[in-house]
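User: My instructor asked us to take a sequence, write out its structure as tokens, and then describe one feature of it. I'm not sure where to start. Here is the sequence I was given:
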Amino acid sequence: MARHKMAIHVGNVFVGSETGLLKGVDLEKKACHNLNNIQDVNRTQEICALCWGNREETEVCVGLRNRLVKTYSTEKNEFIECMECAGGSGNITGLAKYNNHFITCVQSGLVQVWNDQEDKKIEINAGENICCMRQNPQQPFLIATGGKENPLKIWDLQNPTEPMFKAKNVKNDWLNLRVPVWVLDMQFLPDSKKIATCTGHHQVRVYDPSASQRRPVLEMEFDEYPITAMSLTSSGNQAVIGNTHGNMALIDLRKGAMVHCYKGFAGAIKSIQCHPTQPLVASCGLDRFLRIHNIDTKALVHKIYLKSRLNCLLFRSEWQSDGLSGKDRNKDNTSENVESGFHSDTDEDEVWEGMEVVGSKQSKSNTGNEDSEKGRKRKTTKSDEKHNSSLKKKQKQV
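Assistant: Let's start with the prediction itself. The structure tokens for your sequence are:
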């Protein structure tokens, strides 16, 4: 007999894992679903990149480690398309869509634009060791690439022969040594030609292609570890960044200063995305948790355990919050079923506070009794010694 799939609301956040599982998290119903079959995935199908397939956000495009690009339909609750990304070498480091065509980028630096017949339409050689490719959301024909010893480059897909902007390395350091290049992520600033990057040497830089210089117009440092993820807030003047040490912070791109930090991480942060309309930011990483923070108050709104190491995520723009503050949300989360995978910090605190300390009173009473007995023995021995000494003196006098 044929099995009929039960229609489910796949969620507000989509997360890709190292094991190849695509997970849909419904924050309103406190539910998490694996959107593909566990038996059909393995390490070769690790999810390396995610992007939306249309403006309605009803299709999720998934870039796998084995160079396959699949499309998942949230309306049909199944994968509806599969394409092989041939050419170049290495994992997929970037995935986007332009005029209903896939844009793929691999580590060897080969950027390809595919049409519906899977024939290559455009090929760009962006250089070796590419770590990331990003698309300009307001101008989809513009993409940016960068990597290890591969500086930031901005490409126009309408004229892809040469990059329209290529960043110049900063000046030598105070020892007159060359500063190494290692671009790990970048974001286009809205309503502007500027672009922000984060590096493997804990630097955040802002470039302005319209300026006369190709060096960054703003530069700041954060912590001492590689910054692996970056996302702009809805205002576009601030960004949330995270590094390999599990530190996430909000920075001001106008002043080049840190605003505040977010707490609760236990591993490297692999992906960050801010909600386009609400003050919320989603993050995931190697500690297997998906976290939703309030950008302004720093409150942890949701903390979801997803059982696998996580690589990337997508935050749905149509999701509406129920208006709960961070404290109220944590109180509400404590009453949820453990099987749903939702956890909060108050759960652990209540467990520890509810545990009785075994043997603490007995040990204190026992130690007190032992001390009192020792004191009595000392007093008796001292009194006996005095009595014996007085008897000896009397015997001598007699």
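For the description part of your assignment, you could build on this observation: The CA atoms of residues 165 and 209 lie 6 Å apart. Try explaining in your own words what that tells you about the chain.
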